[in-house]
Design brief:
Elements lengths: L2 H8 L30 H8 L3 H15 L4 E11 L28 H13 L4 E6 L9 H13 L3 E5 L5 H10 L3 E3 L6 H4 L8 H14 L2 E3 L2 E3 L5 H12 L7 E6 L7 H6 L9 H14 L4 E4 L8 H9 L4 E4 L11 H11 L2 E2 L12
Parallel strand pairs: 1-2, 1-9, 1-10, 2-3, 3-4, 4-5, 6-7, 7-8, 8-9
Helix pairs in contact: 2-9, 3-11, 4-5, 5-6, 6-8, 11-12
The structure holds iron/sulfur cluster (SF4).
Iron/sulfur cluster binds next to loops.
């Protein structure tokens, strides 16, 4: 038995190595685990077009080559500053443009954030994510944010924040305080983006991602499907992620939760056809897994309305991270009890640590 097979049998990943930013030589066949950042849209479209069972089978093989096959990473998300955001993201109930009745709150007190982090740790989370509804953090908030990061880190949790756009100086401060991950999503394809958000550009997002990368933090970047986009847009969305100079370490794939009062919620809530088809959602997860073999692919918003069978298919397709707890930022989530029951049914277990959590800036 080869070392790789022994490792797979034992449930541990093969050595993933450091991904190369420059892929050269002949392109591998679909399902090949070579790390590439030069995927083309036609290649990605042909992955989406594959027979479903072949696609999921290949995605699972890629998954087993790089990750423990039974382990799922658990993260907890806390809204540290809710509502009143000046951005106009059409899916978001926290936007000041949405009529959801959500009350804008101030940045939470550091002590209250740390108390929530302690609860998350006690319930088995390995990573604590803190989200603020801002266009970008103000410099006056940076001291409190850094205190939160240092406090959560001192509990032995991985730290993640999502605060909107960052300058290089802000990214450097957060990184120095111990922030492991920064989340900033591309949301959708460059072509569909303008139909969803008008107050910041795709390039603004890419600039923030590059500041995060340059600061040495790991990148968490994904998006939302089911926002009225086409298959071509899903191809374009994953192409944008998989051709970043370095793949994101975490890739959250959300299914739109249509919230009444938001632009997209009002447009799509009563049109079931506009909801993402579950098989198409699983395909999106499988393609993400094949394109970005080392990433943690996270099932995020929308999971609470998925059947257990659909979630199981997502895990088979290579998803290996979820948010736990009853709530995400402002929408419902599956809940820890439901997750524990599902894990027991599927023979999955919580991941105890993830390597590498931080990526050296180059
Ligand atoms: S998604 Fe983020 S940036 Fe967009 S409106 Fe909501 S809180 Fe603001």
């Amino acid at each position: 038995m080869t070392e790789l097979l022994k490792e797979r049998e034992a449930g541990f990943p093969a050595k993933a190595g450091i991904q190369s930013n420059i892929a050269t030589g002949p392109r591998p066949a679909p399902g090949c685990t070579e790390i590439r950042c030069n995927w083309t849209r036609p290649e990605i479209a042909s992955l989406f077009d594959r027979p479903f069972l072949d696609l999921v089978f290949d995605a699972q093989q890629v998954h087993r080559d790089h990750h423990p096959r039974k382990q799922v990473q658990l993260s907890t998300l806390l809204s540290i500053k809710t509502g009143g955001c000046p951005e106009d993201c059409g899916y978001c109930s926290q936007s000041a443009f949405a009529e959801t009745g959500l009350k804008a709150e101030k940045l939470m007190d550091v002590g209250a954030v740390l108390a929530s982090a302690a609860e998350a740790k006690a319930s088995g989370s390995g990573r604590f994510c803190m989200g603020a509804a801002w266009r970008n953090p103000k410099d006056r908030d940076m001291d409190s944010l850094c205190e939160m990061v240092a406090g959560v880190k001192a509990m032995g949790l991985e730290t993640c924040m999502t605060l909107g756009m960052l300058t290089q100086a802000q990214a450097d401060r957060l990184s120095a305080a111990g922030l492991d991950y920064y989340n900033h999503n591309l949301d959708t394809s460059p072509e569909h983006y303008g139909a969803i958000i008008t107050t910041r550009t795709y390039q603004d997002r890419l600039d923030t991602l590059s500041h995060v990368r340059a600061s040495g933090m790991a990148v968490c970047c994904g998006g939302i499907v089911g926002m009225g986009e086409s298959r071509e847009d899903r191809v374009g969305f994953l192409h944008a992620l998989a051709t970043l100079p370095t793949h994101p370490e975490s890739v959250p794939i959300n299914a739109l939760v249509p919230v009444k009062g938001t632009v997209l919620g009002d447009m799509l809530a009563d049109t079931p056809l506009a909801r993402i088809d579950e098989i198409e959602f699983v395909r999106t997860v499988a393609v993400a897994r094949i394109l970005m073999p080392l990433a943690m692919v996270r099932l995020s918003a929308g999971r609470e309305s998925m059947s257990e069978a659909c979630q199981a298919l997502c895990f088979l397709a290579g998803a290996n991270s979820i948010f736990t707890g009853d709530r995400l930022l402002t929408t419902g989530n599956a809940g820890a009890c439901a997750d524990a029951a599902l894990f027991a049914k599927l023979g999955l277990e919580a991941m105890t640590s993830e390597e590498p959590a931080r990526v050296a800036a180059e």
